């Protein structure tokens, strides 16, 4: 498909320009997707503000990674999809060849291939990602809700890797989009979920996602408040979903002896945490990290969105046109709303 398209083009941190560029040309094993809805994301906000070492490899570059749309062109070797299909997928796919992939640790793949360009009118989907991490969108699922697939897959992966079970009390620190997804997923597991956040607005929103109690983290006694809700012992599991080192430390102080802390929020390079080693050792606390998603969790996330167990509409605060995508990201940066749909 020849021609021009409108896109948000990344030139440098803080320098993103809405301009006209060439429509991507596909290979015989690729498809061209007309974007129907893209979503704001904390990762894209950070990319806009400070760049990204793996997502942005050359400039100028399209950017944004959560989207869904319609196939408008398919290469002659593509058999999985056809023109007119409503599709959605993840922004990466593992290679299945490296040592980590052979050990089924797909999120640690040494050769992850990335897909960029959600804040554009058209996106070309590479063959490998198309084959392993793209799916048809059911007719009843709106495009903007289908576009939640990638972040939800990350949260599904995280919730799948912690020992939370029916009746457990789980504190989730951070009521942003990922934190809210964790809250809903853990409530579906039968856990009593405590939402912890600095924002009263976000804590109020969290009540729509099945939480049991809320605690405002701005108070000096908020760790004690969480522990008191758990008979003074602390939560069975604590999920950290903010990406701030001091919150990682707080999470360790919220968990009960023998409990598990999931450090899910990614921090800035070079940051570190300090732990009470005696507490950590003698209370046998498990501290673990989970990153990204796997093809299995992408497929499961689409199932949850499609069958309504995850109500995608609750995550969409409003809509912005493509030319206002940066305004939408800045709004998220001010913690206004949960996610915004960007409509080309």
From TrEMBL:
Keywords for the protein's UniProt record, in alphabetical order: Metal-binding, Oxidoreductase, Zinc
Domain of life of the source: Bacteria
GO molecular-function terms, A-Z: L-threonine 3-dehydrogenase activity; zinc ion binding
Cofactor requirement: Zn(2+)
Nucleus among keywords: no
Domain Enoyl reductase (ER) intervals: 14-342
EC number(s) given by UniProt: 1.1.1.103
Top-level EC class: oxidoreductase
Xref: SUPFAM superfamilies: GroES-like, NAD(P)-binding Rossmann-fold domains
Family: Belongs to the zinc-containing alcohol dehydrogenase family.
PANTHER family noted in UniProt: L-THREONINE 3-DEHYDROGENASE
Protein name: L-threonine 3-dehydrogenase
Organism of origin: Anaerostipes rhamnosivorans
């Amino acid at each position: 498909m020849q021609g021009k398209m409108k896109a948000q083009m990344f030139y440098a941190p803080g320098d993103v320009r809405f301009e006209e560029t060439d429509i991507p040309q596909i290979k015989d094993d690729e498809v061209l997707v007309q974007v129907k809805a893209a979503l704001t994301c904390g990762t894209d906000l950070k990319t806009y503000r400070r760049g990204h070492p793996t997502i942005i490899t050359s400039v100028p570059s399209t950017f944004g990674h959560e989207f869904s749309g319609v196939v408008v062109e398919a290469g002659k070797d593509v058999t999985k999809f056809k023109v007119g299909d409503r599709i959605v997928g993840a922004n990466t796919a593992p290679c299945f060849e490296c040592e980590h992939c052979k050990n089924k640790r797909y999120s640690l793949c040494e050769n992850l291939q990335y897909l960029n360009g959600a804040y554009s009118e058209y996106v070309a989907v590479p063959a490998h990602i198309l084959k392993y991490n793209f799916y048809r969108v059911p007719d009843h699922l709106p495009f903007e809700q289908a576009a939640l697939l990638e972040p939800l897959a990350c949260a599904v992966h995280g919730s799948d890797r912690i020992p939370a079970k029916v009746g457990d009390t789980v504190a989730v620190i951070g009521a942003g989009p990922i934190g809210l997804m964790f809250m809903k997923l853990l409530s579906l597991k039968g856990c009593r979920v405590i939402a912890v956040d600095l924002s009263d607005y976000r804590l109020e929103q969290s009540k729509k996602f099945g939480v049991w109690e809320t605690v405002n983290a701005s108070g000096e006694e908020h760790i004690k408040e969480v522990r008191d809700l758990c008979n003074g012992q602390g939560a069975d599991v604590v999920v950290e979903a903010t990406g701030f080192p001091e919150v990682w430390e707080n999470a360790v102080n919220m968990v009960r002896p023998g409990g598990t802390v999931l450090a899910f929020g990614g921090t800035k390079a070079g940051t570190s945490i300090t732990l009470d080693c005696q507490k950590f050792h003698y209370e046998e606390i498990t501290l673990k990290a989970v990153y990204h998603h796997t093809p299995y969790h992408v497929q499961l996330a689409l199932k949850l969105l499609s069958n309504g167990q995850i109500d995608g509409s609750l995550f969409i605060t409003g809509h912005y046109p493509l030319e206002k995508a940066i305004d939408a990201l800045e709004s998220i940066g001010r913690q206004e709303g949960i996610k915004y749909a960007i409509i080309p």
